[in-house]
Write a structure and sequence with these properties.
Blueprint lengths: L29 E7 L6 E7 L13 E8 L4 H7 L3 H4 L29 H10 L4 E2 L2 H8 L3 E7 L7 H10 L2 E6 L15 E4 L2 H9 L4 E5 L8 E3 L1 H5 L3 H4 L15 E5 L13
Parallel strand pairs: 1-4, 3-5, 5-6, 6-7, 7-8, 8-10, 9-10
Antiparallel strand pairs: 1-2, 2-3
Helix pairs in contact: 4-5
């Protein structure tokens, strides 16, 4: 296991531009949850970043990012060992846990998140004690009017819903995705999350329940119930689009579900989970 926390601007992992890093190497962040995962009880944290500046993420745009991490385990080790079930639950994009000393992460991992960048930087910053711990209500005042991205890494359903409610209420829009619809102990709520699915069979089960889905795969399989992500078709950023905000309660005709082609360094592994 890795020891020490090193520099925040990791020369090997790089600095994810969703974070704010000043010349002194500090990262602005708010800890809004530090407690047991609803998925398996392991200690986790939920940290908000990007609430005082703009994000350079070309797809999402300027959104408040939320990082859900194991509190006491380096995120790379958590992924490789399979302990990341605490934050990712049943998500098949985690890859295959292994003990291969030559590997730094899980095998055949399709997830697009580069763990050695933003998640690692946030985890190190937390352990340096440079983040402010606040209540969700206090954090809500800091993010008021901004777009909130639930689960920039990690699944929001690992965190109790009362943590998210004031944040979502204060935000102008929110984006959320979850693989935990069938995880009995999770805080999955279709009004907060797009239901992440890996196959048409899963999608159709969700549609039968009137839930909107987010599916990654081969564009040749897109269905009438789905819309190709506007970022792909027209370069629209998530903060301007806002379609990935779950199933809207009380709304008769819902927006279509969202489809996006496989992307990222692990895209070649996506089909084996479909």
């Amino acid at each position: 296991m890795r020891r020490g926390y090193g520099d925040l601007c990791d020369p090997h992992g790089g600095l994810d531009m969703d974070l704010q890093c000043n010349c002194g190497g500090s990262v602005m962040g708010l800890v809004v949850y530090n407690g047991p995962s609803l998925l398996n009880g392991a200690p986790i944290i939920n940290v908000l970043t990007g609430y005082e500046d703009t994000s350079a993420n070309s797809k999402t745009g300027s959104a408040v990012q939320s990082w859900i991490l194991m509190r006491d385990v380096d995120p790379r080790d958590a992924n490789k060992s399979g302990q990341d079930e605490a934050i990712c639950g049943h998500c098949p994009l985690r890859g295959v846990a292994n003990e291969d000393p030559k590997r730094k992460l899980a095998k055949d991992r399709p997830c697009f998140v580069v763990i050695a960048q933003a998640p690692l930087i946030v985890w190190k910053a937390f352990h340096r004690g440079i983040y402010e711990t606040v209540t969700p209500e206090e954090a809500a005042q800091r993010i008021k009017g901004k777009v909130l991205r639930i689960g920039s890494y990690g699944d929001g359903a690992a965190v109790p819903i009362p943590v998210w409610n004031p944040l979502v209420a204060a935000a102008s829009k929110h984006l959320g995705y979850s693989h935990q619809a069938e995880y009995s102990s999770s805080a999955y709520n279709p009004s907060l999350y797009m239901r992440s699915v890996q196959s048409l069979a899963e999608a159709r089960l969700a549609w039968a329940k009137k839930e909107r889905t987010f599916r990654v795969g081969d564009p040749a399989t897109i269905q009438d119930e789905e819309l190709l992500c506007p970022n792909v078709t027209h370069g629209v950023q998530c903060v301007d689009c806002g379609l990935c905000n779950g199933t809207r309660p009380g709304v008769g005709k819902q927006p279509k579900s969202i489809f996006i082609p496989s992307h990222g360094s692990g895209a070649k592994y996506v089909t084996q989970y479909a």
